[in-house]
Amino acid sequence: MKKKLYSLLLKTTLFFMPLAAFAQPSPISLRGDVTVQFIMNVHHLADRVAKDPATGNLFYTTSDGNVYEIKNLNTSPYDTLLYTTATHGIDFLQGMTFIDSSLFLIGNHLIDSTLNTGLVKKAVLQPSGIRTWVNVATTATYAQSHTYYDHGFSGIVASPDLSALYINSGSRTDHGEEQNNYGMYPGLREEPLTSAIFRIPANSVNLTLPNTVSGLAPYLYADGVRNSFDLAFDSNNNLFATENSGDRDDPDELNWIRQGHNYGFPWKLGGDNNPQQFPGYVANNDALLNHHSNCYLHNYYHNDPTFPSSSGITFTAGIKNLGPDADRYREPSGQINDGSNSGNFISSFSPHRSPLGLAFDRNHILASDLNGDGFLMSFTIGGDSAGLDPYGNIGALCDPGEDLLHIKLTLDSTGEYEMHATTIVKNFLNPVDSYLDSNILYIIEYAYSGNGRLFKVTLPLSPLGINENSTTSQITISPNPSTNIFTIHTSSKNILSKICVYDLLGNCVMDKKVLTDGVIDLSGKAKGIYFVKVEMEGSFDQPGMTEMKKIILQ
Description:
mainly beta; Neuraminidase; Immunoglobulin-like; six-stranded mixed beta sheet; 5 helices; 41% strand
């Protein structure tokens, strides 16, 4: 039974509907100053990508528990398997982040088809180069629903000061319906441990998260989230999270996550009321409930007189999308409209897009129209007006999906964020996660079988986005300006540094590796502004770091 459930979780829990194996398209940039480059194939079930600050190498994970390191990224990249479930104990691996040289993983240990245990593990780098494993946090066991909707522990991000970890625990239901696991848990909907975001100290060791409201009170940060698979901080240290809204044609969300706020699940999904909370609900009369969906086929939407009351709870709405993209919605009549065209702005994205891979330009180094902004992908392929993709599965509602969005956030008159969402790259295949490294956005794709892919999206840099006079800088460049030769001086001695020079379009026009200091010769290059990225490798007692400097060739 465990093997059967495990297979089901791997295929469906992340993205709520199984998809067919699709022919691999080629991503296409919609901006002349944004380029897309294929890097390498990755193993199937790849679900996360991140950078190790100590080595500068990318790591990626697979949902069945494997952790890979990518070496020679810029020359002849290859991956090597570092850890498996046997190493860290996580069966269902859904999240990864780094704090300095320590690797953090998050996921679940599955007990047959009956119980889950949420796990957060840390791998601490030792002087020998070997990592030792530390149990950061373990939950009490909590009930599996034994459906597509056991979302588990997934998103994880460190606070900007690195003192805390924010972790997502997804729901065990689609929309708050009873899921009794074939009568094992009569009347059970959500648990205290599910559909919430928790904050724990980053230095925790063997922390136990109980399955009680009172026991979780010191760690509960925000509630009423269905599955905030991606968490990310912007340059103002605001926390944001992406969210799917389930089988019904309710908008998917981008939420500004604040302590003590409730984001509406299961009473609100994408700004829509969950109709099952109201007496006399008839599923067959619900134009937003697709009759091909798992919830309809299993009668999970139904008249439900015992649905819990939301009395006394104040909800925080998802971020309003002002368009021009990713803002389709279905009217109660069944008609499909465009939010920015109709003026009925939705919170936040077209149903079933599955927004993932959230990242922000925290250092304000990108070109002016991207500067400080966010980026996220949409996992799901586009669907037609019936909500079905070309293979008969639930697709993004009358929306292309499988793209990269540029997200520009602004505060409205009430002090809440609203956004403009614009597609800048299209034609990915199930993009699942991203990592923004300076102006390079690495995007990894999820494959149910065969290979996934890793891409590099190069975003344009801003000449105003680099502070070459920073008092904390560890590198200097002289002379600057120069006619052709620049010398880079680093404060760390005998540390290997990787140097790359970018033009204003983000193209790397020269790269090299040096110890301590290096010489940049731009003879023959066009005069103008360039940017130098210096990546200094870390050591046991000194984390690696990356700096970007502006230089002028005259």
